[in-house]
Design brief:
about 110 residues, mainly alpha, ENTR1, coiled coil, Endosome-associated-trafficking regulator 1
Length: about 110
């Protein structure tokens, strides 16, 4: 039982680490997209100021940034759900180990 619990704990820890890694990658992607968004904003301001810029390219950049941002948000939500699930599982494992320790103490007192 203890080996299975330890295995489950290791599995949950690995899932949490994987989710944290995914979150870091998503943060990097968000940073890149924020840069692209700023570029698009500057192009938009230039258009409003009367400077010539390809409106189709601006629209394409904005659409591309929005599409990627949506993908990142979806991935981040998934990672957060994974982390939450991992935390709940680790809490359950901790409670099982705590109960096992109490049982062992009671048995030791009986002896």
């Amino acid at each position: 039982f203890i080996q299975r619990t330890e295995w489950t704990l290791q599995l949950m820890t690995q899932r949490a680490l994987d989710a944290e890694s995914k979150v870091e990658k998503l943060k990097q992607e968000i940073f890149i997209l924020q840069g692209e968004l700023e570029t698009s904003k500057m192009e938009n301001e230039n258009l409003r100021a009367g400077q010539t810029t390809d409106l189709g390219a601006v629209k394409h950049n904005i659409d591309f940034a929005l599409q990627n941002l949506h993908t990142i948000i979806t991935g981040a939500n998934w990672s957060i759900r994974q982390l939450t699930s991992g935390v709940e599982s680790l809490s359950l494992v901790a409670e099982v180990l705590k109960s096992t320790g109490k049982i062992s103490e009671v048995e030791a007192e009986k002896e």
